[in-house]
Amino acid sequence: xxxxxxxxxxxxxxxxxxxxxxxxxxxxxxxxxxxxxxxxxxxxxxxxxxxxxxxxxxxxxxxxxxxxxxxxxxxxxxxxxxxxxxxxxxxxxxxxxxxxxxxxxxxxxxxxxxxxxxxxxxxxxxxxxxxxxxxxxxxxxxxxxxxxxxxxxxxxxxxxxxxxxxxxxxxxxxxxxxxxxxxxxxxxxxxxxxxxxxxxxxxxxxxxxxxxxxxxxxxxxxxxxxxxxxxxxxxxxxxxxxxxxxxxxxxxxxxxxxxxxxxxxxxxxxxxxxxxxxxxxxxxxxxxxxxxxxx
Length: 295
Prior knowledge:
This protein has three domains: 2-14 and 83-182, Sandwich (Immunoglobulin-like), CATH 2.60.40; 28-71, no CATH class; 189-293, Immunoglobulins (Immunoglobulin-like, Sandwich), CATH 2.60.40.10. 12% of the residues lie in helices and 45% in strands. The chain has helices at residues 29-40, 42-46, 52-68, and strands at 2-4, 11-14, 17-20, 24-26, 73-75, 89-91, 100-107, 110-116, 123-133, 139-146, 151-152, 157-163, 173-182, 189-200, 204-213, 223-229, 235-242, 253-261, 270-276, 281-282, 290-293. The strands form six sheets. Strands 1, 6, 9, 10, 11 and 13 form a six-stranded antiparallel beta sheet that branches. A hairpin with a 5-residue loop joins strand 9 and strand 10. The chain starts with a strand and ends with a strand.
């Protein structure tokens, strides 16, 4: 799914960068005429089938042509500028639905947000790709990041943050795309999460907690994710940590700690937590991430 922050056109890929480009659609002309050539010369071409190696080569060649018939190119002149994208609109890359990006915002050089699994099945390897444009619609930066959770169950959400690692021009806008895979791994609920004390200073926020493994086997690579919201439930920050140690034996506990810099920690009013391991998921009554309000 393309989520444009004003004018989506077709996208092209060049030098590892994604571009939104105007231009005409080109197809490979050999796809159009090769079948006509075979029709006119079928008797001669059929003689080649007597040679097994040549037949295999021809079959491979035909398959490559058939495969390339759906490919296209976008042609633009070298000095042509990129047209302005349409922001705050949605354009599907294909006919398939995509996970919902519930909210996102650009904070200096980082895009933070959360994505919702709106399917009836779990999804994994959910990746968010960002393309940033200046006020004239010219691409200035790109970056991508997997969301913070290994797997997102139906109706659950996960946070993401994409660090762009460069100074962006004022009035920058951005487009987000999502990709994912359907997961066959519906992890059983066996991890109990509890959140303890949190503290705020002039520019930092810190929260402690622990995870208990109620499963019958070890929980490996235990990962706790968190989304931090303001009073309007807009994402301020998102992060993940591993428990210490990150392998928890049955009926044992391990602590975790979030500590990060934030301009105004007093604006954090609620937090959503999730925990997963290679084997297990969070114990919860409704499948949603645990959300805790700040007083």
